Amino acid sequence: MIKMIVFIFTTLLSISTLAEHHKDGDKSGHEDRSKSDLFSEADSDGDGRVSTAEHELMIEEMAARGRDRFTSMDLNGDGYITKDEAKAKRKEMREKKKAKRQKKNWLMKKGDSQP
What we know:
By secondary structure, the protein is mostly helical. It has one domain. 72% of the residues lie in helices and 0% in strands. The longest helix is centred in the C-terminal third of the chain and has 31 residues, at 83-113.
């Protein structure tokens, strides 16, 4: 039961982080995963159908990513995430995206300036 509560909390926190990301208007570098992408990811054998086993595997993988995300947000490792920890993680993610975007722009400009 505790694991389920932690999973639900992590999922809601992740959704909250994503919503905050969109509220800030910073959509650059964000790739939307369409339903067909999720279907293709779940269809591990590529037969155009998703079996119960494939679905359960996909859910397990999503839960593992959620746990990893939770752990990365729990900055002091106490097993809880505070608003300050979530805010700090969002800020860190925004800064990483900004740095990545700046590097990409610099590389593009550098490529344009070469003969």
